[in-house]
Structures are given as structure tokens and as C-alpha cells.
Amino acid sequence: MSAAPSTPTYGEVTNQGASTNIAWHQASVDRAARALQRGHRSAILWFTGLSGSGKSTLANAVNSALFERGLSCYVLDGDNVRHGLCKDLGFSDTAREENIRRIGEVSKLFLDAGVVVLTAFVSPFKADRDKARALVEAGDFIEIHCAADLAVCEERDTKGLYAKARTGEIKEFTGISSPYEAPASPELLVHTGSQNLEESVATVVAYLEIHGIITAPAS
Amino acid sequence: MSAAPSTPTYGEVTNQGASTNIAWHQASVDRAARALQRGHRSAILWFTGLSGSGKSTLANAVNSALFERGLSCYVLDGDNVRHGLCKDLGFSDTAREENIRRIGEVSKLFLDAGVVVLTAFVSPFKADRDKARALVEAGDFIEIHCAADLAVCEERDTKGLYAKARTGEIKEFTGISSPYEAPASPELLVHTGSQNLEESVATVVAYLEIHGIITAPAS
Known about the structure:
Two copies of one chain form a homodimer. By secondary structure, chain A is an alpha/beta fold. Chain A is built from ten helices and five strands; from the N terminus they run H-H-H-E-H-E-H-H-E-H-E-H-H-E-H. Chain A has a domain of 151 residues: Rossmann fold, CATH 3.40.50. Helix content of chain A is 46%, strand content 11%. Chain A has a five-stranded parallel sheet, with helices on both faces. The first copy, chain A, is globular, with a radius of gyration of 21 Å. Chains A and B meet through helix 1, helix 2, helix 3, helix 4 and strand 2 of A and helix 1, helix 2, helix 3, helix 4 and strand 2 of B.
């Protein structure tokens, strides 16, 4: 029977080598411990698609569904990122790249914190999405292409942005004057242009269950 | 008895005005809902102090204590921020300010996600800390001054940084060649230079209980 470890002091902690005391306060709360406690894995659900394709609507609806099951989950979108963390960034190519880089890094922090994080950004460029994917392990990054025809998105024009893009008031608008590079092989392709929201939510939730991120509720 | 709301489609959601359907998927998972589900409020615990004062050690030990109670909590420190979100930033005055700005914004996201977030950065300048404080509501930002004499910190010199600062290998090192602006009225002053780690953890946890962030476990 080994002696109970004494409570470390700051000095002891910082000067000693590998130690159960260090493990006690430094490394014991890792992602695996969080998953065990919360009853689900964390993941990054990266929603990508044209403006108006329904990314944010779907991400929020999935978030609500996960929350109702008691899971730790959070949506990152333009509302809480562009006005805060990325408010110093404009819409030049460099700024867009940096915007997506930061979102990828913040998503990685939430992943590490045990949270299913749902990001809803156009993220039109494959290279930027792939960089975000490369920050984490395989299986942690779930790219969800919200596929809707440009005509449908422009018809919706929920924020009036397409109208401004057509008149040239907004430059380099994705789908109009800047390309959207659709994912070649996303983990999920959701037809948000034609499918009912409830069906889309079910598609995403089923994916998470099938891949062991979350477990189906007991029936 | 009102009719059950129909499942919204993307088009309906985005085109209609105030609606219970929008509320269903957009706003229902707010901070209050998270607090209710998790059984505790969220908060930003902003640890500040000299290098070697024990910020990260204390933050991690408090994090472990909160985790053991089943709370949602997460530590942001140099290890997970400087190598990721802020890896583009150096140590100039401007870069340090931007570093703290981003940490404040990310902390706000975790706060909104219902997580008790513990930040462990020197954050030597009052103006930068006050900007982070100003991002959130009163009571959400708990500044914790980890007070240890410079001599104690330099004696510990856990990362060998003071030695490098003394030889001039590191420029503008807080406490040696750059000022540390101690908080005038922090929410908590913890004597990490002289106090036992266990006592310091108890001090912080008691503060959270007294201020209704968390509840004491049933005895």
C-alpha cells in the first residue's frame, strides 16, 4: 500500500519531474476524462456552404437537439465571432484566411474542452478548411456541406447580401463574384436547399450516433 | 390549447419575423438554459501574476477540483493558446495587447457556452485586463491576483526565463525589464508565494460558492 500523495506546493510542483502530484493537477482533466464524465465524445462539426444555404439554421437546430439530450455543445458563427474575436479582420483574402484559421484554433480548444462545437461559416476555400481539419485528429473534424443551389440561396437572400452583391455594393461575394469550392468528399452532404430542416437535423444526429460521438437515447 | 408549432423549413425560418419556431432553434440554448441544465453558472477566472507565481498551477488545480464536482470547466494558458490561436503573435507591446484581447474574446465564448473558464497569463497591464473585463457583465469576470514576491518567482524560475532575462537574452521580461501592474482591487488576492496550493484552491472555490457561481456539494 503506497502512501497517499502529499498536497504539492507550488515549488515542489514546478521543480520535480514526472510525478503523480503533477498528474493530479496538470493532466488529470484531459479530453478522455471529460468524455467519460459527460458521456459523449467531443467533435468539430464544420458546416460549410453558400450564404443563405442554411448553415447557421441547421447548426443551431442540431445544437438544440444535442442540448436537449444533455450534451455539451456550442455554435460558433458570424454573430459571436465576427463581432468579437475576429472584429479586427476585414474580407480580403488574407483576412478571410486568418478568420478561418482562428475559428479552427478556437474549435480545437472547445474540442479539447469536451464540447461538440458547431461552426457555421461560408468557409469557401478548400485549403482553409483543410488547414482547420489538419489541426485535429482524424475523426474529430466532421465537414458538413450544406448544399443548396445558388438560385435557392439568392431567392431566400435572408440578409439582403445577394442583392448588394449583384449591384456591386459588396465585392467578392461567394457564389456571385468569388468562388465557392465545394468539398469533394465531406463527411456529410446535407441537401439544405430541398430538404426539410427536421430531416437535416436527423441526418447529422444519426451520423454522430453511427460514428460513436454520441449514443442514442435509451428508448 | 395552442397548436404545436410545425417544424420550420429553412425558408420559413429565415423569412418570418418573431416566431416561436425561430426561438426553438435559434435562441433556446442560451447561457441561462445551460446554467440550468449544468447546475452552475459560468464565469471567467482571470489569473494574473508574475511568471513563476503559480498561475497555471493554481488554475489547473482549481480546474481539477471543479471537474471532480462534475462542472464544465477549462483552462486557457500559454500551452494551448500561444501555440495555436496566437501563434502568429510575438512579444511586442502591440502583440501582447492583441494576445490578451483574443484570450478575452475566447473566454467570452466559453462563458457563453456555460463553461467556467480559467485563464492563466501574466497579463501585466491593467488596461488590457480591464478591456477583457469590459467584454462581459459585472460578476462574470473574476480577477485573481496570484501574488508572489519577485524573489520567490525568480528563485523558482521554473522555465529558466528569469535567468535569460537577467542576461538580457530575453528582452522586456515582466518584473525584470518590463513592469507588472498589480491589480488595485482584484476580486481575489491569493498569496501563491507563501500559501500552500491546497489552501489557494480552497480560497478560490470558496469565492465561487459564496458568489453563487457554483453550489457547495451536499455534505
